Predict the 3D structure of the following.
Amino acid sequence: MLIIILLSLSTLAVLLLLCKTIWSLSRFSYRANSDSVLADKLPSVSICIAARNETHALARCLENILRSDYPKLVVLDDSSTDNTSLIIKSFALAGVRFIAGNSLPAGWLGKNFAYQTLIDESSGEYVLFLDVDTSISTSTVRQLIEQVVANDRAMISVLPRRDDSYHVSALFGTMRYYWELILSSRSHPPASSAIWLVRRQALAQAGIGLVNYGMSVRPERHLAHQLQRSKQYYYIIGNRKLGIAYAKRLSSQYETALRLYYPMSGRQFVSWIMAVLFVGLLIFPLVNLAVATNDTAIWLLSALLVIITALTFGLFVRQTYGSVGWIFRVAIGPVLLMQELVLLTLSYILYGMGKVTWKGRSVAAQPARHDALRLDE
């Protein structure tokens, strides 16, 4: 009887996952704009990178940006202890501006303060925030500007592709972007920290940049939700044409998941338990297949649920991964779900112990529920 109840709940969980995946992919898929913005009407853009101990990818990131239509850059070195600042300064003649990070004041996480410093120092009509491990093509910035202009939006963020799909960090990477998409709704759209573009005027109207979100682990999400109320926010899933890709190391992905999964679940024990149960129900049919049973109907239902779950995840991975590496990632989907369950649990434990860090800095001082704070509160 217990197995039947659990399989019934698993069926509901799988069907919910399927419906949410199809809805999200259809709603947020990138559609190229047919009308180009005239050159004389293109707004200025400051491309900002908050770099702290980022020598492994910074040079390549800057080289990609310098091929862009918008070469005006502001790069903040956030108190690095390696050679990050030297790399930035070596690009000075190409138009890259280096800004040394100041001492971190109370009430701020390091990256958020770096973002705010960049906002204060930049002068473009739009500000484009870019992670070091995110790469763009020559036409990416122009396409993003065309998207916000054509759709009359003040902010846009993009779910990047993973083109190096054969790398271990790609195959066994976390499912963070997938959960962000699945948890979205019309009033609470997803937001990507990898790359987001916002109009300076909208930042001023929203409350002087990120001042109200100094301790938030997802400041771009708060801005997105705020601007969504007036339909000024736009989110898209990048494709090959848009030219946005990321190559985050596996260890960095784990660190990000531990920092985000508990806040994403709602920062409440009950909501966290619900998230754990949901992932557990997705895994249960596979576990049930491994257990010897004489009931053919139960075995077939379990097999069907496993297949539907894999195909559902495959819809997302096929759209966000390059080449055929996505096939292997779908094949190990059950392993990835178990990995997500472990990360979700560890995220809750580490937050409870005050051991969560961001770029080596503790986020434990963040007040309870601050991640849900609204700018107009």
User: Anything to note?
Assistant: The chain has two domains: 2-24+254-372, 30-249. The longest strand covers residues 45-51.
